Amino acid sequence: MPQGKTFYDVLGVSRDASDKEIKTAFRKLAQKHHPDAGGDEAKFKEISEAYDTLSDAKKRKEYDQMLMFGGMPGGGAGGYGYAGAGAGGAGWSDIFDSIFRGEGAFGTDWGQGFAGAAGATGARARSRKGSDLSLTVDVTAEDAFRGTTHKVTYRIPSTGEQQTITVSVPAGAVDGGKLRYKRRGEYGTGGGERGDLVVTTHVEEHPLFKRKGADVTMELPISMYEAALGCTVDVPTPGGATVRLKVPAGTQGGKTFRFKDMGAPDVKHRGKKGALLVKVAVQVPMRLSDEEREKLEALRDADTRDYREKVDRYHGTY
Question: How many Cα atoms occupy the beta-carbon half-sphere of 40 within 13 Å?
Fold first, then answer.
């Protein structure tokens, strides 16, 4: 087999061809190249080796793995010879006997068998686009906010060659986002164009900021005293700036404040940004000094508000 040529190329099918497509391709080529029909014996052997491997699920899986890791199995390597059993365990002699009877290699669905060989001689393998390839790039949360570039090297399964591309990660990139690079994937067959390279971004989590698309959320701790009396807090933003948040007196835990256009760049709408959503988390001291406890108890005893009015009305009703 010529260097760099795969069994898929020999049969003129794509890497993701179905079993039926592989069988059909083999039948046409076998009619054309069988020595008893005046074909080339070396070519027929090459076709048979390819079919013997690709028609067997286990062999095909092993072959694909070898291609994926840069291997280029040749004819007959690893016991992939053409003299073994065909699909379903049928011997090659049985298949060829069936061919000569006009029943086809796998039954009567072959139609006219070698009667149609003359017409098949001039047929060309159907043009197919190469399959898409995929890879993942890791991006820090900071780089995802502002955008970055990554130079990555990947392998073309059918040839084993390595190719390098500079991936431009846009500002506002999200975890699981897809970047598609046209005609940088697997090579096509029969003159078909190359597939695409699909790059998935894996964005690391930020210790403070969380993402909801272009919107950015964060939790802002404040003390129970600040919640009761009100306060002003300087809040960081994903872009590196600082905004001042005025927390009103009596603010409850879970209250969310929205800062428009202070989130991440919106990759779906160029020039726009999401919002920064600041959620207040009221913190209660876990330990109190004697003086603090005394003062808080005095405040509690003087407080006549009914905080559980809605709860108390249901006592004894069930």
Answer: 6
Say which DSSP state 267 is in.
T
Q: What is the C-alpha to C-alpha distance for residues 209 and 227, in angstroms, rounded to an integer?
A: 22
Contact 283, 193 (CB under 8 A): no
| Beta carbons of 120 and 31 less than 8 angstroms apart | yes
User: Which single residue is written with the structure tokens 């039948």?
Assistant: 27
Residue 102 pLDDT greater than 70, yes or no: no
CA distance 103 to 125: 23
Strand partners, 172: none
| Residue 7 to residue 67: CA distance in whole angstroms | 10
Structure-block tokens of residue 284: 């209660």
d(CA 236, CA 239): 8
Dihedral sign, CA of 19, 22, 25, 30?
negative
Q: Which residues, 6 or more positions from 23, have their beta carbon under 8 angstroms from its beta carbon?
A: 55, 87, 105, 106
Tokens of 32: 């054309």
Q: What is the pLDDT of residues 119-146, one digit of tens each?
A: 444 444 578 899 999 999 999 999 999 9
Provide the 8-state DSSP code for 129. P
pTM of the model: 0.55
Token digits of residue 274: 């999401």
Asked if 183 and 275 touch (Cβ cutoff 8 Å), the reply is no
Give the tens place of pLDDT for each residue, 181-225: 999 999 988 788 999 999 999 999 999 999 998 999 999 999 999
**How far apart, in whole angstroms, are the C-alpha atoms of residue 283 and residue 224?**
6
Q: Which letter, b or e, does each residue of 27-39 get, where b requires 16 or more Cβ atoms within 10 Å of its Cβ?
A: bbbbbbbbeebeb
The residue assigned the tokens 């009103």 is: 248
Q: Which residues pair with 199 in a beta bridge?
A: 135, 179
Residue whose C-alpha is closest to residue 72's, from 19, 10, 147 = 10
- In the block, tokens 């898929």 appear at 8
- Mark out the alpha helices in the chain (DSSP H runs): 7-11, 19-33, 41-54, 57-68, 92-100, 117-121, 141-146, 224-229, 290-302, 309-312
